[in-house]
Amino acid sequence: MLLQRKIDRAMDWLKDKNTLNQPNVEDPTDDNFDLENFDPKADWLKNESENMILEKNDFFAIAISALLVFSPIFIILGFIIFLML
Asked: Is the pTM of this model over 0.85?
């Protein structure tokens, strides 16, 4: 497979990240451990959002990408409304 080493390295990184964020299952007295309500994806998203810092032009890039995604929809809807009038 093309770029197999990069894929393997990414999978190893993901495994390491997941094992570090898992609560200690062997220790039921751990205060942070709640097996019934544990959601590893939510925990990972919480940790990522705390460390997220936007750079200078990130908001501009986000706005441009949103415009590129939604502008065809708005153009089609505008054309349909124009035809109805």
From this structure: no
Structure tokens at 74: 């708005």
- Helices H / strands E in the chain, number of each: 3, 0
Q: How is 61-83 classified by DSSP, letter by letter? A: HHHHHHHHHHHHHHHHHHHHHHH
* pLDDT band for position 59 (cuts 50, 70, 90): confident
Q: Which of 17, 16, 83 has the alpha carbon at shortest distance from 51? A: 17
Core vs surface per residue 9-35: b (16+ CB within 10 A) or e: eeeeeeeeeeeeeeeeeeeeeeeeeee
Dist CA 20 CA 13 (whole Å): 11
Q: How many CA atoms lie within 13 A of 42 on its CB side?
A: 3
